[in-house]
Amino acid sequence: MGTIQSIIPPIHPEGRRFILIFFIITLGLFWFLGDFFGYIGIILTLWCAYFFRDPIRVTPTRDGLIMAPADGMILPIKKVVPPAELGFGDAPLQKISIFMNVFNVHVNRAPIQGRITKIVYIPGKFFNASLNKASEHNERQLLAMEAADGTTVGIVQIAGLVARRIVGFVTEGDELDAGERFGLIRFGSRVDIYLPEGMQPLVIEGQVSIGGETVLADLKLKEGQRVGKRD
Predict the structure, then answer these.
(1) From 162's CA, which of 15, 135, 137, 153 has a CA 20 to 30 Å away?
(2) With 0-12 CB in 10 A as exposed, 13-18 as middle and 19+ as buried, what is 36?
(3) Over 80: is that where the pLDDT of 164 sits?
């Protein structure tokens, strides 16, 4: 079973109706426009199933680790004041942004074990999620999480140029394990995570993260911010 799931990962239930819609449209393309457009429909239907895949992940559970909430490419890491809606104050914090293209897994996972203390949804526009202005102008959902030791992290799900819906699986007060699924963004998007004060990232710009598996930071590690090179 594990081998099968590694080749054909499960489909998240959120995607089933979209796959069905794509399939029905494909049948219509074959019927009304012929084989050429029908085969295009098949490709798009397969892509839709691929987009909504929800693979099994193995999440490290040691205290102090902050895991990647999403698959995708790490954008430039900056120290900025977190959104006021999170209630984290005015002190700049390290922000790690993960850009998900339309081929990445779009199920989002909790970066720590803890409680959801706040959820704020903000309607907005649909700029390319890789742009800086997406953090301020795009449709987004903000979540604050607090661990048992008081460690807090902020997570911002941001809709992108193609994305048109942020889907949440949790409510305020829910207790989550690290790596547990908390939401999904349809069709290309981005997730920002704000680290606790004084915490340095263990990832670098251009690195590809795996949601629930890549360690973004470690409270128990005193290493400075990492640098890297492209090869």
Answers:
(1) 153
(2) exposed
(3) no
Work out the widest C-alpha separation in the chain, in whole angstroms: 64
Candidate CATH numbers 3.40.50.1820, 3.20.20.140, 2.40.30.10, 2.70.70.10; the one for domain 65-218: 2.70.70.10
Q: Is 189 a catalytic residue?
A: yes
- pTM as predicted: 0.87
192 — pLDDT class (breaks 50, 70, 90): very high
Distant-in-sequence, close-in-space partners of 86: CB < 8 Å, separation ≥ 6: 118, 120, 142, 144, 154, 194
The reported pLDDT for the residue numbered 77 is 93
SS3 41: helix
Compute the distance between CA of residue 215 and CA of residue 229 in angstroms, rounded to an integer: 19
State the catalytic residue, choosing from 130, 135, 189, 209. 189
d(Cα 77, Cα 163) in Å, to the nearest integer?
A: 23
Where do the domains of the chain lie?
A: 2-51, 65-218
pLDDT of 127 reads 63
C-alpha to C-alpha distance for 56 and 210, rounded to whole angstroms: 11
